[in-house]
Amino acid sequence: MTTGSVLIIDDDEVDRYLLKRLLKDTKFNFEVFEADNGSSALEFLNNPSDVIAKDENLFPPLIIFLDINMPIMRGPEFLEQFAKVREQIYVQSCVIMMFSSSERKEDRESALQYDFVKDYLVKGSFSSADLRNRIQSVIAEAGA
Prior knowledge:
Layout: E1 5-9, H1 13-25, E2 31-35, H2 38-46, H3 49-54, E3 63-66, H4 75-85, E4 95-100, H5 105-112, E5 117-122, H6 128-142
Parallel strand pairs: 1-2, 1-3, 3-4, 4-5
Helix pairs in contact: 1-6, 2-4
């Protein structure tokens, strides 16, 4: 049984694959959607008809995992645009967990200034058990 969906926004196919494996190990059974940059992710969020036709419970995603450094539209630009569109489309319940290789304090603080960004994960620094606990915390806080 699928327990909802998540959206991974990352230009690195290997990083997306590794996160999908970790998510599978958490036993949440999420439907996983992917985008390789912020622009294609916004397009996905603005045009969810294919997802809703498949299963209306899959949209909006419960969590968006967002990388910082990507081509076309980087993570910070996505956050700015997402802050605007989340009021226009039904994604207010969506929360973001940053998923980046950047350990820079400035990147963390910049991302966490948005109230919908609930966590900041550094790639390769957590296990599937850690991820499960952090997801449970984020879902509980969001009331999902």
